[in-house]
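Protein modeling request. Please complete all fields; requests missing the sequence field cannot be processed.
Requester role: graduate student
Desired output: 3D structure, token encoding
Chains: 1
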Amino acid sequence: MKESTAAKWSIIGSMLIFGTIGIFRRWIPLPSGVVALARAAIGTLILAVFMLIARKKPDWKAIGRQWYLLIPSGLLLGFNWIALFEAYNYTTVSVATLSYYMAPVIIVLASPLLFKEKLTLKSGVCVLLAILGMVLISGVLEGGVTGLKGILFGLAAAAMYASVLLINKRIHGISGLDRTLVQLGVSTVTLLPYVLLTENLADLSMTGLTLGMLLLVGVVHTGVAYLMYFSSVEKVSAQTAAVCSYIDPAASLILSALLLGERMDWLGLVGTALILGSAIVSQWPAKVREE
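Delivered output (291 residues):
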């Protein structure tokens, strides 16, 4: 397919935005559930306003036919954000991000059971190398695990995100924009009662800076970034989209080192290369076949 240069830059821009969310989360002194709810609600509003202005009407018939897939995927998306935001609280942004990027490995392990796909030698090696990478970044070889609670939250987020991606593979005939609008809406509806039951909103300290950061995460990191991605992803090859998706963790690792002073030793760097390299290689064939 002939690719659009503007679409490529739009996807790259969205990935760079996604790559900074961990840093901004560290600067928002609010519970993870509140941040996730704000992200879902604001993101839903931004997408809905865009579709209204662009006169893009959701395909409600197609959405109605697959509600049984859209609802659980939206619920998992919201709680995946809570787990990821908690991971940022209990370990470094770098380690939380790498824990989260175990999602492709989980998909490789789940696909033979769910889709009867054969686990190839290459996929098996990728899984083992990614697990080795997790061991290296955890610090266990140096006498103890660093930020175990954060790693567990990151892996929980990875499992939920992998579940969303696996469910999305079964959703057909719905545009990425429609699907995301519904999933964000479902996330908002399910996270609202959770937050009301688990948090005392009256005790929250909401300064102007905190509110601004919260709006930034909702408007830019969700609404704008999702629009940039889904308005462009169909104009590039699946291979290009797959490669660009790894700008997100790369940006996160670089910026967390520059802005938060997070540093990795040589074992952590090797682990990083193993996790991201294994994720790229394990996903590559599936991405190419989607073209």
